[in-house]
Amino acid sequence: MGLHDSFPAYGGRGPSDLRLGIVLGAIATIFTALRVYVRIRMNKFGTTSLIWALAAWLLTTVTQIFAIISILHGLGNHISIVQKMGELHNYLLYTWITVFFFNMAIPVGKVAVAAFLIELNSQSNPKIRRSLIVVAALNIILNIPQILMAWFQCSPPSALWDPLHQNQCNHTRSVYYTYFVGAVAAVSDFYLAIIPITMLVPLRMDRKLKWGLSFLMGCGIFAGAAAIVRTWAAKFIMSDDSSYGMGILFCWGEVEEWLVLITMSIPPVWPLFRPLTNQFIKYTSDRSQPQYKYDGYGQSTPTTRGHLADGPIVTTTISISSHKGAAMTAGTVDEEGSDSLSRYEEEPETSQMPLGYNGHPEGWMEMPQFNEQKRT
């Protein structure tokens, strides 16, 4: 016995929306679980952003559950079929409950991304930090009226899910405000996708790895595109075939929600996949030179690989500690008793990239962020 037999109003766009939501939800849940594992077992970075991410995952999961119930009762199918099957009351009730949780999940997801980028940026760029705080605050503040407005479109509010009193509802103001909030959400997604790319581009690291991470962390652009389509689809709330049009809205809404969760989980779970990429990564340092790796506490350990070239050679490699706010230090070494010195002029730190293991220097990606000036 299929779903059509148990739920006669199930159909139209509903089945495809249901499958898409379940697939994206499963992927996001796997990434979220891996993120929790990395935080517990591998490093101590990102506690605040993880809490926000778990809150976003919980709200999005609840939204998806009620969306599935709504689909089974006619969301995504034509309104004439929903009325014929006597499911109009259930469709309206579960759809508006879904909208309620959806309006909470969207801003919390944006805040989770902003919180991670704030921790990633640390104190290195105050302008970026302030802008991320503004983005997070705007999404929360502007969505509060959106959450409340859904329940006051009808007089009395219970008419919202009463098929006999739909003429007592006016959705115009709510839909217009949705256009405004949706535009803010789309711009926020684009901004949150571009910012990590600007952090990665200046770093001295393997080009394939740099652009690969830039692409993965910039996939939030697709969430922004989904937000645009979802905002456009809000007009179907006032259409004659609202149940079918709402299927379009929820399709793109769930894409936006789950993509935000998936893309924000890629950087934190990188330590699990880093060993798999070693064969594609070229280290920026010369393997024939001694490397001095700093653990964030000013301690260095020289490692010699291969034959040293003639003349004074100085190699300094910075590895970023997993301890939040740990200081980055650089040193110079004069090899083979030369009287000449080579010095580094250290630039201000631009970002912190928690892409390694439990604070051990070998597990963290080495990212020198200074200009080398050799003086003989």
TrEMBL record:
Supply the alphabetized keyword list.
Membrane, Transmembrane, Transmembrane helix
Identify the InterPro entries for this entry: Rhodopsin_dom_fungi (IPR049326), SAT4-like (IPR052337)
State which residue ranges cross the membrane.
Answer: 20-38, 50-73, 93-120, 132-152, 176-201, 213-238
Look up and give the membrane topology term: Multi-pass membrane protein
Q: Which GO terms describe its cellular component?
A: membrane
**UniProt subcellular location:** Membrane
Q: Where is it mainly found? A: membrane
Q: Where is the Rhodopsin domain?
A: 34-274
Region (Disordered) residue ranges read: 326-376
Q: Give the protein family.
A: Belongs to the SAT4 family.
- The identity of this protein, by name, is Rhodopsin domain-containing protein
